[in-house]
Amino acid sequence: MTVKKLHIFLLLLTAVIITAFLLWPSDESRIKKLFKEGSSAVEAEDIEKVLSKVAFSYHDDNGMTYLYIKDALKRQFDALADIDVEHEKLRITVSEKTAFAEMDVRVIATLGSETGYIIGDIKKPLHLKFTLEKERTKWLIVKSEGFRL
Prior knowledge:
Elements: H1 3-23, H2 27-43, H3 47-51, H4 66-79, E1 80-94, E2 98-111, E3 114-119, E4 126-135, E5 138-145
């Protein structure tokens, strides 16, 4: 390989590495996407898509596990219609393989002929905290705090 070809190869390799680094999404943007897609999945009443954001090892202080969440979502989706999820003030802290997220949440839904807030209200949203763990390049929720049973 000539010196000129070697320089071109190194320049192209450097360009590819820089491009990949700039286009690779940050952990924070992946977590934001997780919550956005999770909210959309709840609104669409898609249990499998909601659960794809939750680790099978999920366990919280209320005794909820992955399987309990699946059952609870099924019951809620059977009873409710026109679900609208609003979240705001999302704050994310990321370390190596663990992340913490906090947000304020309101959920509006229809039960029978009545429509109203089922989580939070107009004046005071429900403040939720989440613990996430990274599995390869994917973040999953392993614990939550703030839900009232």
